[in-house]
Amino acid sequence: MRSFQDIWSLAVDRKGEAAVVEGLQFPKPADEIAAVPNDRFLSLMTRCIFQSGFNWKVVDAMWSGFEAAFEGFDIGHCMMLHDEDFGRLVSDTRIVRHGQKIKSVQENAVFLADLAREHGSVGAFFARWPAENYVRLLDLLQKKGSRLGGNTGQYFLRFSGLESFILSQSVVNRLVAEGIVTKAPTSARDKAAVQAAFNTWKAQSGRSLTEISRVLALSID
What we know:
By secondary structure, the protein is mostly helical. The protein contains 15 helices and no strands. The chain has helices spanning about 5-15, 15-25, 30-35, 40-50, 55-60, 65-70, 75-80, 85-90, 100-120, 120-130, 135-145, 150-160, 170-175, 190-205, 210-220. The model has no long low-confidence stretch (mean pLDDT about 95).
């Protein structure tokens, strides 16, 4: 595969250096992630789930209603939601009335409560996760969380400020062009190969997975 510098040059040739630099995104410092209250992770997680396959602007416009309907996404409250609550919420016009996604709020509250109990807080858990094993975190979200597979979990981690890559079509196309995978990675072997490639580019450049992901996306048509 090409070096990161070569891929940077491809991105600059396509977009111009100023546009590439402007298009970079950066992870948050670990202490900033650790300080985020537990309820804000559940709120963001839920927002990503409801935006998946739906109009993001509609969800954004309704978000104050979501916050009210789910009591500010208080973990203790949301993990205790039961059938009567689901029946009420599925008719609540303040939110998008999607039964399975509404149920995911309760399931993910339980998931996050378990993380907080074991690690002190949800933020502490995410802040300590090593970027070099990022794909394992994606697997954890998919296995232990609800509706957090695919791009949903990836966007949640990116918006949370973690060092991360998003396997958008453009990024996948660059990975294919570099011979790392032949299609969007779904197998453990392909995911490991993608992680190894990002780790190599990180070592070469000193840049975060987040920055590298953006450069890859800008480097290909």
